[in-house]
């Protein structure tokens, strides 16, 4: 199963997705974060929040692209979901494959460890003593995941718990399933 | 307001993109010359050379294709245009009605401005959507050079 997914992810990455220069992408993201920091007067809680919201808006649309390209069907359990997020989701959009690790005993939450992070290339956090404690530089990723999960009826908490930019040993996103939402008929379409 | 902001975002990308592109270019050139002699590319000081560098090298690095045209305005001496028939970045963007005069390519205009500014060509760059047949997204980046740049240019061409 796991190998098949990897193969699928590779195939889609190679043949189906349009690519853009990664440095342009990195620089653009950096430029946006820097601007947000200025706009919110270096209040990093608000910057985190804004990045998350931006990601969320991306996520609820990105899932369509994802489903269209992959033609995958429903996941059976969260373990499946985690594998697919890492081996296909991250692969086709960012060309990275985070490691799925640190499962909770009840299998309702897991960690995604990013060994490489294209968003954070060339990055140094502001040297004001606050940024290295508070700013989650790549927080947009959490928003994207949150948005995507929500559109497939998974209500999740997604947040960073460590980041190498801050001097931690690894970069890890924690995903915690809160509940599975019910399929609902969109308003006005009965 | 939004345009200014997009422009500024691009500006800071431009500053870094120039450095990066030059680095990549030099690296590739050095690798290719078998003599081991370094033929490091120089900083361009002429307007046309500089714009050609942007239209080819920078465009290729950032967007994986050269720009489609480079023109000089016939009315104003200080105006030049870089033209892209199908800009990569705004391919998936549709601007809502209430932002009708917002052109998202202002971001790329900012990149150009950043690159020119840090290379001592003071200027302002704006993006204009000028559709042509078959190219609904065709964009013209209008470059308005500062007077000092034009003066220097005419001094250099007299030599």
UniProtKB/TrEMBL annotation, chain A:
Localization per record: Endoplasmic reticulum; Golgi apparatus, cis-Golgi network
GO cellular component: endoplasmic reticulum; Golgi apparatus; TRAPP complex
Record family assignment: Belongs to the TRAPP small subunits family. BET3 subfamily.
Cited SUPFAM superfamilies: Ligand-binding domain in the NO signalling and Golgi transport
Lineage: Eukaryota, Fungi, Dikarya, Ascomycota, Saccharomycotina
Pfam families with a match to the protein in the record: TRAPP
Keyword Transport annotated: yes
Main location: endoplasmic reticulum
InterPro entries with a match to the protein in the record: Bet3 (IPR016721), NO_sig/Golgi_transp_ligand-bd (IPR024096), TRAPP_component (IPR007194)
GO biological process entries: Golgi vesicle transport; macroautophagy
Organism in which the protein naturally occurs: Eeniella nana (Yeast)
Highest taxon in the source lineage: Eukaryota
Protein name (database record): Trafficking protein particle complex subunit BET3
Cross-referenced CDD domains: TRAPPC3_bet3
Gene3D superfamilies referenced in this protein's UniProt entry, alphabetically: Trafficking protein particle complex subunit 3
Keyword annotations of the record: Endoplasmic reticulum, ER-Golgi transport, Golgi apparatus, Transport
UniProtKB/TrEMBL annotation, chain B:
Listed GO CC annotations: endoplasmic reticulum; TRAPPI protein complex; TRAPPII protein complex; TRAPPIII protein complex
SUPFAM superfamilies for this protein: Ligand-binding domain in the NO signalling and Golgi transport (SSF111126)
GO biological processes: endoplasmic reticulum to Golgi vesicle-mediated transport
Xref: Pfam families: TRAPP (PF04051)
Gene3D superfamilies linked to this entry: Trafficking protein particle complex subunit 3
Subcellular location: Endoplasmic reticulum; Golgi apparatus, cis-Golgi network
Keyword vocabulary terms for this entry: Endoplasmic reticulum, ER-Golgi transport, Golgi apparatus, Transport
Coiled coil ranges: none
Primary location class: endoplasmic reticulum
Function: Plays a key role in the late stages of endoplasmic reticulum to Golgi traffic.
Subunit structure: Part of the multisubunit TRAPP (transport protein particle) complex.
Name of the protein: Trafficking protein particle complex subunit
């Amino acid at each position: 199963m796991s190998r098949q997914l990897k193969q699928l992810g590779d195939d889609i990455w190679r043949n189906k997705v349009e690519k853009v220069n990664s440095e342009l992408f990195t620089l653009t993201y950096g430029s946006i974060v820097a601007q947000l920091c200025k706009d919110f007067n270096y209040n990093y809680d608000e910057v985190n929040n804004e990045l998350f919201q931006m990601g969320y808006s991306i996520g609820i649309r990105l899932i369509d692209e994802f489903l269209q390209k992959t033609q995958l069907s429903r996941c059976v359990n969260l373990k499946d979901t985690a594998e697919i997020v890492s081996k296909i989701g991250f692969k086709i959009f960012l060309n990275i494959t985070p490691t799925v690790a640190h499962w909770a005993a009840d299998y309702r939450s897991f960690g995604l460890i990013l060994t490489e992070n294209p968003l954070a290339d060339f990055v140094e956090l502001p040297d004001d003593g606050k940024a290295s404690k508070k700013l989650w530089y790549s927080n947009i990723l959490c928003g994207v995941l949150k948005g995507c999960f929500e559109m497939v009826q998974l209500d999740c908490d997604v947040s960073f718990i460590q980041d190498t930019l801050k001097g931690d040993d690894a970069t890890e996103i924690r995903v915690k399933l809160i509940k599975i939402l019910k399929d609902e008929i969109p308003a006005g379409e009965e | 307001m939004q345009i200014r902001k997009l422009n500024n975002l691009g500006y800071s990308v431009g500053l870094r993109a120039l450095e990066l592109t030059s680095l990549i270019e030099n690296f590739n050139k050095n690798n290719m010359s078998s003599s081991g002699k370094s033929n490091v590319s120089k900083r361009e000081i002429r307007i046309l050379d500089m714009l050609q560098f942007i239209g080819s090298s920078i465009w290729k690095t950032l967007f994986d294709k050269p720009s489609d045209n480079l023109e000089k305005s016939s009315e104003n001496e200080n105006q030049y245009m870089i033209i892209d028939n199908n800009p990569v970045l705004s391919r998936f963007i549709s601007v809502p009605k209430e932002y009708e005069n917002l052109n998202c390519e202002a971001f790329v205009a900012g990149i150009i401005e950043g690159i020119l500014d840090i290379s001592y060509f003071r200027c302002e760059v704006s993006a204009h959507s000028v559709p042509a047949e078959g190219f609904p997204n065709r964009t013209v980046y209008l470059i308005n050079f500062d007077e000092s740049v034009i003066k220097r240019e005419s001094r250099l061409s007299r030599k």
